[in-house]
């Protein structure tokens, strides 16, 4: 039972919080709407100030919501616009703290997984994949995640997935080759196997042939073979990023796998230092209890009674006490304690 007086206080607090969040959303939205390459330094500076003035949780949620609404639409977004939005996240990720990029990345990956499973007709999947690709381009996330996504797409291998593989390779293929040429080679081999064993209807498609040609061009480091490939815009924005970021990019890259991101609610977010976690226990309690039962062999009831008298009130204390009391010599005690 909550007395009316306390209820009133709570309602006032809730309304106050709602108003604050509404005000914050308006401010961030105004800044994001004006975002472009020339004014990126001033806008990132203003958002940093907002991070200092408000709670990180509120800011992360507000920023992620606004960026997702701006970038994830049923029509294909211009790549330049995507890059500028992700560059802003990257600058904040390096200057404010890695939880900024981590929060945004998790939201994008979960949404991507959800939309890929549902058969939507729009271009949301490509837009989300472009966000992930540029998060990798601007050193927010490690190539591990990109390889995980590519492996998953290759394992499914339908028309939609082939299109997404091509889209991703065109955006980050040469960077992946620089980061981990061996993993890329393995992926290409896997894709060739899949293409050979695919059903007839899919195998004869020009798109599949084009995908394999693109992969071979990547392997041979032949940029001319990839139509529409232009590294210029990314390089230009990377220069801008270097001038805005106060720390070097590599140590703040999130080395996190696709599986870890998708199961973050069950296993916690180990990639964010000091992130609080309230959820189901990471390991089954039953297995934990089983592990805690210590194997110390049969112990006489007399020794157990002594342990009880000495207030050995947990399994581990009783076990240590029994080992010390029943060992023949120090070597025997040492061996048993180790076990």
UniProtKB/TrEMBL annotation:
Localisation per UniProt entry: Nucleus, Nucleolus
Gene Ontology annotations for the cellular component aspect, listed alphabetically: nucleolus
The protein's name in its UniProt record: Nucleolar MIF4G domain-containing protein 1
Self-association state and partner proteins as the record states: May interact with EIF4A1, EIF4A2 and EIF4A3. Interacts with PPP1CA and PPP1CC.
PANTHER family membership: CELL CYCLE CONTROL PROTEIN CWF22-RELATED, NUCLEOLAR MIF4G DOMAIN-CONTAINING PROTEIN 1
Membrane-crossing residue ranges in chain numbering: none
Gene: Nom1
Stored Pfam families: MIF4G
Keyword terms of this UniProt record: Coiled coil, Nucleus
GO molecular function: RNA binding
Family to which the UniProt record says this protein belongs: Belongs to the CWC22 family.
Organism of provenance: Turnix velox
Physiological role: Plays a role in targeting PPP1CA to the nucleolus.
Coiled coil: 181-208
Keyword Transmembrane helix: no
Limits of the MIF4G domain: 25-222
